[in-house]
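agent: user wants the structure for Bifunctional protein GlmU from Brevundimonas guildfordensis. delegating to structure tool.
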Amino acid sequence: MTAPHPRAAIILAAGQGTRMKSPLPKVLHPVGARAMLDHAIDAAEALGCERIVVVVGSHSPEVRAHVEKRLGADSIAVQDPPLGTGHAVRAAEAVLGDFVGHVVVTYGDVPLLKAADIEPVFAEAPEGVHEGVTVIGFEARDPGAYGRLILDDDDLLAITEAKEASAEVLAVTACNSGVMAAPVGLLFDLLAEVTNDNAKSEYYLTDVVELARKRGAPTRAVFAAEDSVMGVNAQSELAQAEALFQKAQREHFLAAGVTMSAPDTVHFAWDTQVGAGTTIEPFVVFGPGAKVAEGARIRSFSHVEGARIATGAEVGPYARLRPGADLGEGVKIGNFVEVKNVRMDAGAKANHLAYLGDGHVGAKANIGAGTIFCNYDGFFKHRTTVGEGAFVGSNSSLVAPVTIGAGTMVGSGSVVTRDVAPGDLALGRAEQTTKPGWAARFMETMRAKKAAKSQ
Ligand code: UD1
Ligand code: MG
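agent: tool returned. relaying tokens verbatim.
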């Protein structure tokens, strides 16, 4: 195989996205807990694109800031005002004009399109490296407003926008996904010839197909599945994209040996990792950054984000693991326990109703029901350290910064404000007093009062 030509990507994201009816710019809406635009950038990176340019509108500074943070200012082209897809691609010329190689144009609102779906646009034509224009088409269940591909066997003759199409052309079900690839010089040359003399008075990217043919450059379509090229324009389509994304993730994890009795109720993020032999019970939700090893168990109604879970650990039901929760082998986190930024060594347990934030719990330590790591003083966060094998009695408040040594015990209901040395018992609560017979006398008096009143 010859080395592939250098590749670049132009991602269009300058549309207004008004149909989303959302203050958040459309391309920043998430699918699988990742912005749609990041999915598009991921695909371009996975294709090996050396240069990636995102075309943004001046109406959405958030999109610009997002791209600047991930790719740098060199990757931004501004289109203002937006005058069509062809005009949008031309806006990238100033940034990409010096590039030599092939460029692929994709959209920032097509979150399910993967590098593997796009790769065929770069495939060599029988006569060698493809030196013409390639588009990704798909068979549409409902072709609606999509551009229609006018094909002659493998040759793509033209793309006709629905607004310009005759009844005969509207009957065509082969549609344009919007993805197009060409040598960068050819694409910009052709775009310079595109006019806005059409029904929408826009500069159509799709016009380059006919213009290429006029020059004798080859033009072709390669096909992808309709679901993978779906675009998001409204909230209902965002939900539909999410459903397709989740379906693919569930199938992926089932195939990888994860046990789920009700996979349709489990929600994954784009980067969730789960090892084989792990069981995920119904109604578990993963936020980004969750890494679950092999042979763990996540019980129902748990929420797991930015957390690591080792082999043999058991989480939930009704547990919340937040970023930095790091559970060692065999750790048990039970119902209504929240863990944030705490490492729990092997065999440690917090079985009921606790908040463990910012700290370290040693191996086999037992955190009683209702224990709180008081980590925040209103200004700063502080750490709590619980030593190996310590036993923290129920309903204790450990006021950080504080260290409970190895093998210590904390009496139930304690407020611990000072360090406890290994092996010691800490009691931080009022001493109990008992008044013999007091309750019996009190109840007797009250019963008598009540009886007198109700007569
Ligand atoms: C486009 C295609 C159509 C294809 C369809 C697939 C053209 C002329 N038509 O139509 O053949 O079937 O996509 O969904 O290309 N954008 C900009 N600047 C602009 C206009 C658009 O950045 O000035 C971006 C949008 O944000 C969007 C993408 O380009 O991500 C497509 O624009 P849209 O207006 O939705 O094009 P369609 O009319 O749907
Ligand atoms: Mg569209």
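agent: one observation worth passing along. The chain has two domains: 7-229, 235-426.
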